[in-house]
Amino acid sequence: MKNIAVIGSGTMGNGIAHTFAQHGFDVSLIDINTAALQRALQTITTNLDKQIKKGTITDGLKTNTLSKIKTYTDLKPGVENAELVVEAATENEEIKLSLFKQLSELCSNTTILASNTSSISITQIAAATKNPGNVIGMHFMNPVPLMKLVEVIKGKQTTQQVTDVVMELAKQLDKTPVEVNDAPGFVANRILMPMINEAIYTLYEGISGVEEIDTVMKLGMSHPMGPLQLADFIGLDVCLAIMNVLYTGFGNNEKYAPCPLLINMVDEKSLGVKTGNGFYKYTPESKELVVADRFKTLLK
């Protein structure tokens, strides 16, 4: 396998494209927005420069990596030669189902169709295609070039052959693949998101402040990043979308009901790092975490 198509040039998409290209694969990076593709290439270049500065790659590998990536704004030419398509579009069920239906028509019957979804059912996505046995989840972690884990999610009809190919492919990317069965949130987010949601409830109920909650989890549980800072890093809109999938996926179980504070912050577009404001404030020049103004005193 040499030809990979990646759909979506946002944080996850450009990271996935970067990783495949750095490991010698020819990558078609597809997005309907030309400006987004240009930003993606700039991000990949910047991240490669950081790797050079750390001494993990050479200038030659940077040049070769960038030469492996071609961009497309049209789905058809972008996927026509792909042996594997990795979808990294918005975490929206309707968008993903529509994309996979199109991919099923455009790609060959042997093309593996993978989704980087962090919570949406692979079985449901596969049902939109002609060859559900070829559909699988490849849930990369952010930042993709650095994080070792790839959750490999088997839908109800995913074949063992496709699973084996994707597991081996992840190893070729110097990742550690973990095979899991299809269920709401899979493993990573079924465990992580309720923890983040509970941290938000702890703030919402005035039990402790932003920094205090994060400090407890960092120093007491050896987490490298507190749950509220991590929520900002992931994006509060993404956190809410995943909590909603868990809530409905487990029969409207109150255990998975998103915290009202999380809902309000998403409604207000306080989404974390991507908007410059969440539980903390973010500016290009900021070097230390600063709690958002609204959280400088405990909520009552």
Question: Could you characterize the architecture of this molecule?
Answer:
This protein has an eight-stranded mixed β-sheet with strand order 3-2-1-4-5-6-7-8, with helices on both faces. Strands 9-10 form a two-stranded antiparallel sheet. It folds into two domains: about 5-180, Rossmann fold; about 190-295, N-(1-d-carboxylethyl)-l-norvaline Dehydrogenase, domain 2. Helix 8 crosses helix 11 and helix 10 (about 225-235) crosses helix 11 (about 235-250). The relative contact order is 0.09. The chain starts with a strand and ends in a 9-residue tail after the last strand. The protein has twelve helices and ten strands. The model has no long low-confidence stretch (mean pLDDT about 95). It has helices spanning about 10-20, 35-55, 60-65, 75-80, 95-105, 120-125, 160-170, 190-205, 210-220, 225-235, 235-250, 260-265, and strands at about 5, 25-30, 70, 85, 110-115, 135-140, 150-155, 175-180, 280, 290. The protein has about 300 residues and is an alpha/beta fold. About 45% of the residues lie in helices and about 15% in strands.
Shape: globular
Q: Give the integer mean of the pLDDT values.
A: 96
Low-pLDDT sequence parts: none
Query: What is the SS-derived class?
Result: alpha/beta
Individual helix count: 12
Distance between the termini: 57 Å
CATH class of the largest domain: Alpha Beta
Quote the beta fraction.
5-15%
Give the SSE string. EHEHHEHEHEHEEHEHHHHHEE
Assign a percent range to the helix content: 40-55%
Number of strand segments:
10
Count of folded domains: 2
Strand order of the largest sheet: 3-2-1-4-5-6-7-8
